[in-house]
Design brief:
16% helix; 2 helices; alpha+beta; globular; 4-stranded antiparallel beta sheet; single chain; 140 residues; 5-stranded antiparallel beta sheet
Length: 140
């Protein structure tokens, strides 16, 4: 009989744990209207986009990256730049077949970050679709 009571108690505890609610999280952020224009020498590139956290009005961002470290601007690290409550940095990687730029977009008020990334082909085509990106707390 004691075994039955113990088994019942364990089963109830496991059910309660399994039914625990998930922690609420912010919706994905959407990077809207992204474009990049580089000068003829690729010594300076200007990125323009809006950060839409889906909770407040989108935040416009203009972000200029200069050529550095012997690399053209389109392949250089950029930032940080402040766009409203967001701090933005970026870097380019050519480790795969097509190069890509990854941004770190950090909400300085809510301590959340997203990592939007775009490959060179979609940027060069000039019609980058608005894309959602997962948001998370930074891992320190």
């Amino acid at each position: 009989m004691h075994f039955s009571k113990t088994l019942f108690t364990v089963a109830i505890a496991a059910t309660a744990t399994a039914a625990a609610p998930l922690e609420a999280r912010d919706p994905d952020w959407i990077i809207q209207g992204l474009s990049r224009a580089c000068d003829g020498q690729d010594s300076s590139c200007t990125w323009k986009f809006a950060i839409n956290n889906q909770l407040t009005a989108p935040t416009a961002c203009t972000y200029v990256v200069k050529a550095a470290g012997g690399k053209p601007a389109s392949r250089s690290k950029g930032g940080p730049v402040q766009c409203g409550d967001f701090r933005v940095t970026s870097d380019w990687s050519g480790q795969f077949v097509v190069g890509f730029t990854t941004f770190a977009v950090f909400d300085t008020k809510k301590n959340l970050i997203a990592y939007p990334a775009y490959n060179d082909d979609e940027i060069a085509a000039g019609n980058v679709p608005d894309k959602p990106f997962h948001v998370e707390a930074p891992k320190y």
